[in-house]
What does this fold into?
Amino acid sequence: MQMDDMVIISVDDHISEPPDMFQKHLSGDDLKSAPQFEQRNGADYWTYQGMIMTSVGLNAVVGRPPEEYGMEPQSLEQVRKGCYDPKARIDDMNVNGIAGSLNFGSIGGFEGSRLFHRAPDKNMAYTHLRAYNDWHILEWCGYDSSRFIACALLPTWNMDFTVAEIKRVKAMGCNNVSLSDNPTKIGLPSIHNPYWEPMWKALAENDMTINLHIGSGNAAPHASDETPIEAWITTMPMAINVGAADWLNLSALLRYPDLKISLSESGIGWIPYFMERADFSHARHTAWTHSTFGGMKPSEVFKRHFMSCFVDDLFGLKNLGEIGEDNVAYECDYPHSDALWPEVPEYLWQGVKNLTDEQIDKVTHKNAMNWLKHDIFKGYKREELTVGALRAQAKADGVDTTPISSGGCAPLEEGEVPRRITTGDIVKMFAKQEKVA
It folds into this structure.
C-alpha cells in the first residue's frame, strides 16, 4: 500500500453551528424560544433562556497562518466555510484525503452540557435538543450519509427523556451518542450510580457507541496561570486518563459486554502503561478494594470496550501490538489548531507505512467503521474514497488551501511585545470575549 491508497476516517472533528440550524426543525413558539444566533460589536454569539454562548468557532483556526493558531474566532466570517457548511466541509475533507468524519458540536459543548443541561426550563430544552439532533442527523450528516457519521446529544438530566431519545435517533440511523466523561461536573450522579441503568440498557439494546470527548466533564488541569500554554496543550489528550480509569471500573461493562466506548481526542501512546498500571493496581489491591472485572484483567476489559484515537502519535503506532490493533482509530480534529489539515495523509503515512496493509486499513478506517457502526462504503466504492481519489476531486473542484489571516480575539493585547504565552493569557482572552457579548 502507498499513501494515496489509504482510506481515512476521522473519529473526532467539530462543527461551528450555522445561524439557521433550527429553521427546518421547529415552528411557532418552539422556534421562537430556540437558541438564537445574534451579532453584537462585530461578534457572533448564541442566546438561550437567559444565557449567552460566545466562542462560536471554538478554536476553529484551520486554514490560518500558524501565528494565529492561538486566536479565538469571534464570528463565522473568521472561520473556513467548512466549519459550518457541509458541502464546503466535504471539499475540505477531500483536499485532506479524509473519507469519513464524526463531528462534535460547539455551542452546546461536546455533549450538550454547555447549552441544554444548563437551561432552566428543561422541558423546553428537551424540545430544542431533539431539534438539534434532527439538524445534525438530517441536515449535516444527511448531506452525505456515507461520509458523515452521526452522533447525537442526550437529555441525560431525565432518564425517561434519555431512553426515548436513544430509541428515536436510532430509528433515524444514528449509532453514536456523546456523553460527559464525568457527569458530576454538570450536576448529575456519577456513572456508578443506579440512576444511569436505564441508559446503559437502552444503549446496549440499540447497539449504540458512547463517545467521550476530552473536556466534556473533567477539565484538563494546568499548574498555574503563569504556566506556559504549551505545557497545558501537551497534557490535554492524556487528561482523559482520569475519565478512562473511572469508566474502566464501571460495573455496567460486566452487565453489558457489548457496550462500546470511544475516547475522543485521547492520543494512544500513554495507553500501554495505563493498562499495565490498571492490571498491577487490581492484582495488588483487590483483596481490600473488593473490585471485580468479571474474571478478566482490567487491560482485557479495556480492549473489549474502549477505542482510542490519535492525531500524530508515532510512539503509539510503534507499540500498536500492546495497545491492540483493533482498538485504535485516526482523528483529524478539524478545525482545531492540532488538526494537520490539509496534510493529514503525509503525517499519517509516516506512522503507518511500516505496518501491514491490514493493520493500515484497521487504523485508518476499519476500526472506526466497526466501533462507530458506520459503513462509509454504502454509497461509494473503495477506490472512490482513497486519498488519491479524493485529492484528485478537490483539485478538479479548485479547493483553495492558501492560509488566510482571519482576525479574532488574541492572547496578547494589540501592540504588546511578543512573549511566551501562558495559560492565564488564554483564560483572560476568553473572559475578554465574554465581555464583548
Remarks:
- The radius of gyration is 21 Å.
